[in-house]
Amino acid sequence: MSDYTPLNKVGEFGLIRMIKEKITLQQESTIKGIGDDAAVLEPKQKQLVVSSDMLLEGVHFDLTFCPLKHLGYKAVAVNVSDIAAMNATPTQITVNIAVGARFTVEAVEELYEGIKLACDNYKVDLVGGDTTSSNSGLIISITAIGETTSEQVVYRSGAKVNDLVCVTGDLGAAYMGLQILEREKQAFIANPDMQPELDDKQYIVGRQLRPEARMDVIYDLRERGIKPTAMIDISDGLASELFHICSQSKVGAVVYKDNLPADSQMLETAVEFNIDPLTCIMNGGEDYELLFTVPLAAYDELKNHPDITIIGSITEESEGVNLATKSGQVFPLKAQGWSHF
Amino acid sequence: MSDYTPLNKVGEFGLIRMIKEKITLQQESTIKGIGDDAAVLEPKQKQLVVSSDMLLEGVHFDLTFCPLKHLGYKAVAVNVSDIAAMNATPTQITVNIAVGARFTVEAVEELYEGIKLACDNYKVDLVGGDTTSSNSGLIISITAIGETTSEQVVYRSGAKVNDLVCVTGDLGAAYMGLQILEREKQAFIANPDMQPELDDKQYIVGRQLRPEARMDVIYDLRERGIKPTAMIDISDGLASELFHICSQSKVGAVVYKDNLPADSQMLETAVEFNIDPLTCIMNGGEDYELLFTVPLAAYDELKNHPDITIIGSITEESEGVNLATKSGQVFPLKAQGWSHF
């Protein structure tokens, strides 16, 4: 341990200085970042969106298999994902962290390297936050701010009957990635000399450890002049998010089982684990893809889009939220969100 | 325990609904509060200030003597205090909480009652946040947003030589209140039948449990047309905050020991505990009063102000940061901030 620096060597102010030195501000709307009682922003005539999330060790992540750099990246990405779901452009974040005494300066630096990488990637400025000690594990609480306009902003409540239901990317992989990591952890506990077998699970493990906010799709839709009528990011699972859109838009929906996008590695691994792949897709969660609705007129533009899949359509509220199979069977869906309690 | 509702009975969405129902939005700039992926704000031509703080059970508060309603109030107040220190008007907050399984729905309601009381008092809208479970204690992470303009905003860096150094209220009481609460806790552990003796300690205990952000002084100074040249809120202690102003403004300062505002209950209790009252005043922290500098011309307006005390003046940087006694002795001050690690 002699190569590592205990946190009390640098103290809170030392830590803040260390973090501040790594930061370059790039948003025009950031007037003042870290270093005063508050950050100062100047959004001009824009509307702002604000979202906040907290990640706790032992609840949302496990440091035995989650590298700190990935964790820092993910903590930013999941907040940017909420900004994306409003059809806004992320601009600033504040980061509060609490770390236990066992943490070293080097560990905090690694965490902030991931945070910085995500900030650079999504072009957000880290403008403030708080570092404190924790009696238990690592805690990260992030608030993300984004810019939009009253014309551009997209709520969950705007879906209309006959709209297309679309998702980005593929679903269920983050959940199966977690199952793999948990299995390898148990194997390691049983036999610490064993090497983890992850070679053919890279994709799904990566989906769990280092998800991306789909800003690429947001920018692409803007370029195509397509504005979603309703949108939400998939953190709790497709079924739960579809229920949010339907209840807030006062509509029903039907999604087609055969249209649901899934990666082959996820499908194989689900079979390996004896888990119904449909359960992973509908209720897995943590994929941080976008679920959105668009007017029927966007069909031609989106039908062959490499990152977007049309999975169904919006129906009258009275018809409920349903899953349809190729053979014509229709099953009412249940919202089965991630229960934290 | 049969009168209490376990949290898993209502779940995360039930809890969010419960919190949302209690909220009334009052800020014109709040377009959308809780209920989507992010809140939506429209600050028009204003500048925004953003500040974020995290409070952890066992580090920042002790639930054995801190009522949940007070804690909720305090969590908001300390964030609003940062907004005040920018000479801004608080407008919105987001609240992330993590609660352990031992928490009941009623306990969360009590916490939110305090949060709501503070929101009403400071006229801020609760617009978002996250509720999750914690493996250890209660965690509250709040981000506060406020409005200001480029003409109105006050940084730590604007103090000029010959400016007056002022503080609001009195100092050191929150620290002595904590000593009292710790003493009574130990007495209770030793003999659970004992009643706490707090009758003659109401003021200092209240200063610890339920501090106020000094928005009253901010509004009063605006009415008088006095704009501070530099400002900071006193969370870590007067000495530490004065060092922040001096280093960022590149000036020195002298404060006069006999001018430092102290409450008689704090002074008596310090003597009782054999603690130097000057240490409480200079390094106690958690009073959440404001430390600010104003041009010398404001002297007549402020000299008899009931909530403001002129404690010294700004000097050349080369003179350092000093404490002067009546007899003319001068002691260089040390920044002795609150070390969390």
TrEMBL record, chains A, B:
Residues binding Mg(2+) 4, per UniProt: D37, S51, D82
Source superkingdom: Bacteria
GO molecular function: thiamine-phosphate kinase activity
Pfam families according to UniProt: AIRS (PF00586), AIRS_C (PF02769)
Ligand binding (Mg(2+) 1): S52, D53, D130
Annotated Mg(2+) 2 binding sites: D53, D82
Transmembrane segments: none
Binding of ATP, residues: Y112, G129, D130, R156, S235
EC number: 2.7.4.16
InterPro entries for the chain: PurM-like_C_dom (IPR010918), PurM-like_C_sf (IPR036676), PurM-like_N (IPR016188), PurM-like_N_sf (IPR036921), ThiL-like (IPR006283)
Reactions the enzyme catalyzes: thiamine phosphate + ATP = thiamine diphosphate + ADP
Phosphoprotein among keywords: no
Residues involved in substrate binding: H60, E286, W338
Domain PurM-like C-terminal: from-to ranges: 163-318
Family (UniProt): Belongs to the thiamine-monophosphate kinase family.
Function: Catalyzes the ATP-dependent phosphorylation of thiamine-monophosphate (TMP) to form thiamine-pyrophosphate (TPP), the active form of vitamin B1.
The name this protein goes by in its record: Thiamine-monophosphate kinase
